[in-house]
Amino acid sequence: MDEQPVRTVTVDCFPESLARYRDGYAIVAVDVIRATTTAVTGVVLNRRCFPTPSIEVAVPLAARLDNPLLVGELGGNMPYGFHLTNSPAALALREDVSRPMILLSTAGTKVLCAAGGGRTAVYAACLRNYTAQVRCLAARHSKVAVIGAGTRGEFREEDQICCAWIAERLIDAGYRPGNEQTEQLVERWSSAPLEAFLGSKSVEYLTNTGQLRDLDFILEHIDDIDAVFPLENGEITMQPACEYVEKHDSHSSPSSWSETLRSP
């Protein structure tokens, strides 16, 4: 009888880390604040989504699409000529879903675009669909790398917690941690409440720039989508999640964390 392959899950960070996971790995890109949350939010509303790694790629792509919506930021600033910053809350309010979205961000879309090509699968994931993502991975892939986007050289807490929750549930399903960092992150975040990442610099940035509605949106939409979002031919698409034998309870959050952060 043939031996079953050892199933592993590894948590890592930054686009540069993808070179370690060239062959045989399914890649899960995570940028909770805010690129993958924005991408997932757009696609679940039936908007086409094309992540791009740079302005140099986004501009010619926009010329080939019909009336695209340019969404994103670089270094926290909305590029000239763009219609919307990288805001899932603002995107969710728009009714022009027939317009395809070109998405650009400082970190998250770079991970997605660097991961594409030559691998078994690449997924965009966030706190909206982490349980669905686990079910899909457990059913389809034996080697998984969950990659946090990273910002300004830091593996931000909001990405750590999402990556760790995905890894933990895969370990529960029989996967082995791929390295010591994975074990440490799972141990750190396993029983942590959702509000544990509110001290991150990403949250500080949203607070200082008056964009806390995005934080509210993220924390009011925890594990509410039963689908996965693979990157296929440069476009993020949506597929139903595979069945998974054990579904963990979702984490909950107060109705408005921004009110907490605004309080003295």
Description:
- The protein is α/β, with parallel strands linked by helices and 264 residues long.
- It has a single domain, classed as putative 2-phosphosulfolactate phosphatase, CATH 3.90.1560.
- The protein is 36% helix and 17% strand.
- The chain contains 10 helices and 11 strands.
- The protein has helices at 35-44, 55-64, 88-93, 108-115, 130-140, 157-172, 180-189, 201-208, 212-220, 257-262, and strands at residues 8-13, 26-30, 49-52, 69-72, 101-104, 121-125, 143-148, 176-177, 227-232, 235-236, 239-240.
- The strands form 2 sheets. Strands 1, 2, 6, 7, 8, 9, 10 and 11 form an 8-stranded mixed β-sheet that branches. A 3-stranded parallel β-sheet has the order 3-5-4, sandwiched between helices.
- The longest helix is centred in the middle third of the chain and has 16 residues, at 157-172.
- Residues 244-258 and 260-264 have low confidence and may be disordered.
Identify the notable features of this structure and list them briefly.
about 260 residues, alpha/beta, putative 2-phosphosulfolactate phosphatase, 8-stranded mixed β-sheet, 3-stranded parallel β-sheet, 10 helices, 11 strands, disordered C terminus
Summary, kept brief:
By secondary structure, this protein is an alpha/beta fold. Helix content is 36%, strand content 17%.
Which CATH first-tier class would you pick? Alpha Beta
Roughly what fraction of the amino acids lie in strands? Answer: 15-25%
Approximate helicity band: 25-40%
For the record, the CATH architecture stands as: Alpha-Beta Complex
Averaged pLDDT, please?
91
Tell me the radius of gyration: 17 Å
* Alpha-carbon distance between the two ends: 65 Å
* Tally of DSSP helical segments: 10
Order of helices and strands: EEHEHEHEHEHEHEHHHEEEH
When the domains are counted, the total is: 1
Shape type: globular
- Write down the CATH topology: putative 2-phosphosulfolactate phosphatase
CATH superfamily: ComB-like
Low-confidence stretches: 244-258, 260-264
Structural class: alpha/beta
Largest sheet: 8 strands, mixed
How many DSSP-defined strands? 11
